[in-house]
Write a structure and sequence with these properties.
There is one protein chain. The chain is of the alpha+beta class and about 650 residues long. It is built from 13 helices and 31 strands. The strands form 8 sheets. Strands 12, 13, 17, 18, 19, 20, 21, 22, 23 and 24 form a 10-stranded mixed sheet that branches. Helix 2 packs parallel to helix 4, helix 6 packs across helix 7 and helix 6 packs across helix 8. It is globular, with a radius of gyration of 29 Å. The relative contact order is 0.06.
């Protein structure tokens, strides 16, 4: 029986046998705080999300102090800077124990532990905090660790970050409440020992990036609170006044103003109805030529309720709108696109020239009505080819434009998988899998391919009423993403569409701007820039992504918001990544588009090259500034 990998227990009277007081534990916590927070971040379950993991890791480390004098654990610290420090050993044990508790599922049989609840402190409002993005290897390791159980993840981190032998890891896990530490060690063995990556900035919750939360939503909430207070005061004064009653308007709030134009917009008899043949002779291919479809287009009571709720939604109505979309009532009679039964609901879809409004109510009663808005001003062709009719059970069903002759589903991440036809019934597709509702790791991304007399186009559900159009090619002349080359460009980066869910996205373009031969004979890598444009104009998102040979998916290496890079106004981009070859050497790789004349790096690593590609040997963890010179002499910086 081998026992040499178990650290010997200190003899009585040694530091580990002493009690630990608050001052000693606090000194160890302050001295080693960044390491303890990194330890908590790595052990916490990744499905918490990066922002909550950061705050929870800090909270667990800050709560690791004893309330009074406490017995030191028998496992000494293994690093020379922390060796035989009972204070550090104590707070490390508390961090591991509470991080494992945070990953336990909530049950109805017992009160939740404090670590299982969102932390009250530290408190951050109005910002999203997350560690700096690492390279493809760090992303791959994070995904592998996410697949481990909590104890196995703790075992891997204690081995790699704390350099503990298996015997000491086993005892730390046991004292942390793990019932089968040997099983955790065996499970940890299934992940390759790439311990050096645990020290990378990807897993450093003390070196953070900050981004604002949804500013438009915060502003809407503040305005809604003021409007609600004013409406409550007005309605309270008018409740006693005579009127026609609330019944005909369903879930709408009471009428608080008599205005002829507003009342005309709420009259179902004045709804705009387009002839079913109008699109055939019109030069326009937008929502204005959609006919009214559905089996309830003649139900005046339903249409009246939909219009009334749009103008003044009651307190029980669930209202949602894409960022930058006003949610007020129509200025005049809107156009009816659809009214009909969809499974257990009645659905009405309206268009006022600026927005699509979708009203849904249960077939029995009006409790639980919902009203959704999407901005569609200027939509034409593929952008006006489909509207989400409903989502249920992870599937989505679309109402398509009258000029659409064929609909099909395809997996964007597998360009050779082919198409699966979706039958059309009065313009309504059969249900297809929606990536917008998928939880967990992304392995596929299903999109809708629509065909009409002029060709085919791809659109993707991003959790909103109108799907986003997908294109590929140089930003000044993007093409529909249905060709073989476009599909190959999109395939490794399909899952990156999850980054822009719910952001009011109009189009997303993928531009393969460079290919680079990798050092040490490791093949060639693809550089792709994806740019998401929104309906409101601002809020654009740009990702520079990197795909190495043999990898199923690419990895984002740089991102930016509201910048002209990679777009029609500035069709240029420069990005870099730290990459490790199969031989174990680290390199700074950088690539610009074809009109980049030279690239240079400075800071943690120096180097330059003629042309649009740069490869400089370096070491792990360095940071560099990139600058490029275009053919016209203009200088550009690296995307960040």
């Amino acid at each position: 029986m081998q026992s040499q990998d178990v650290a010997p227990r200190p003899a009585p009277g040694s530091p580990a046998d002493r009690v630990v007081d608050v001052e000693q534990a606090e000194a160890a916590l302050v001295e080693h705080y960044p390491r303890l927070v990194r330890l908590a971040y790595l052990v916490l379950p990744p499905d918490l999300g990066r922002g909550r993991r950061v705050l929870t890791a800090h909270a667990l480390a800050q709560r690791a102090l004893p309330r009074g004098r406490a017995s030191a654990p028998v496992i000494p610290a293994q690093s020379t800077a922390r060796e035989a420090d009972p204070g550090y050993a104590y707070v490390r044990l508390q961090v591991v124990r509470t991080a494992l508790e945070a990953g336990l599922p909530l049950t109805l049989r017992a009160w939740p532990k404090r670590a299982q609840l969102p932390p009250l402190l530290p408190l951050v409002r109005g910002l999203r905090l997350f560690p700096r993005s690492g390279g493809a290897e760090e992303l791959a390791l994070d995904q592998l660790l996410a697949g481990l159980s909590g104890p196995a993840r703790a075992a891997y981190v204690l081995r790699g970050l704390e350099r503990l032998p298996d015997g000491d890891v086993r005892e730390v896990l046991t004292e942390s409440g793990v019932t089968d530490a040997d099983a955790a060690l065996r499970e940890a063995d299934t992940v390759a020992a790439r311990y050096g990556l645990l020290e990378s900035p990807e897993f450093d919750p003390c070196s953070l990036q900050a981004r604002p939360t949804d500013l438009m939503r915060r502003r809407r909430h503040a305005r809604a609170a003021l409007a609600a207070a004013a409406a409550l005061a007005v309605c309270g004064a008018l409740v006693a006044l005579p009127g026609d009653g609330w019944g005909p308007d369903g879930a709408a709030a009471p009428v608080y103003a008599r205005n002829p134009a507003a009342e005309a917009a709420l009259d179902p008899g004045r709804l705009v109805r387009i002839s079913p043949a109008a699109w055939k002779t019109s030069a326009r291919t937008d929502f204005s030529v959609w006919p009214a479809r559905g089996d309830l287009t003649g139900d005046r009571a339903l249409l009246r309720r939909a219009l009334a709720v749009w103008a003044r939604p009651g307190g029980t109505v669930r209202v949602s709108a894409t960022p930058g979309t006003p949610s007020g009532g129509p200025s005049g009679p809107p156009q009816l696109l659809y009214a009909g039964d969809v499974k257990t609901a009645r659905v009405v879809i309206l268009y006022d020239g600026l927005r699509i409004a979708r009203y849904a109510e249960p077939k029995e009663g009006t409790a639980g009505a919902a009203l959704d808005f999407a901005r569609v001003d200027g939509a034409a062709d593929a952008e006006a080819a489909a509207v989400v009719l409903d989502r249920a059970d992870g599937n989505v069903r679309y109402l398509t434009a009258p000029w659409v002759t064929k609909a099909a589903e395809r997996d964007l991440s597998k360009p050779g998988a082919g198409l699966m036809d979706l039958p059309l019934t009065d313009g309504i597709t059969s249900p297809m899998a929606s990536p917008a509702t998928h939880a967990g790791a992304c392995t596929t991304w299903n999109v809708l391919q629509l065909t009409d007399a002029s060709g085919s186009s791809l659109v993707s559900d991003l959790g909103e009423l109108v799907p986003a159009r997908l294109t590929a090619g140089r930003p000044t002349s993007p093409k529909e993403a249905t060709g073989a080359e476009a599909l190959r460009t999109w395939a490794p980066f399909a899952c990156s569409l999850g980054e822009v869910r719910g952001q009011g996205v109009r189009t997303v373009n993928a531009w393969g701007y460079a290919r680079q031969s990798l050092p040490d004979g490791n093949g060639s890598a693809a550089w792709v820039c994806t740019r998401a444009e929104t309906w409101r104009g601002d809020g654009t998102r740009v990702l520079a992504q990197f795909h190495t040979p043999g990898g199923l998916f690419g990895a984002p290496v740089a991102k930016a918001g509201d910048v002209p890079a990679c777009g029609p106004r500035d069709p240029h981009v420069l990005a870099g990544v730290l990459w490790k070859s199969e031989a174990g050497s680290w390199y700074l790789l950088a690539a610009g588009d074809r009109k980049t004349e030279s690239v240079r790096a400075s800071g943690g690593v120096s180097g330059s090259a003629r042309g649009n590609l740069l490869a400089v040997r370096t070491r792990q963890g360095v940071r560099a500034e990139l600058r490029g010179t275009l053919e016209d002499g203009r200088s550009i910086g690296g995307l960040r």
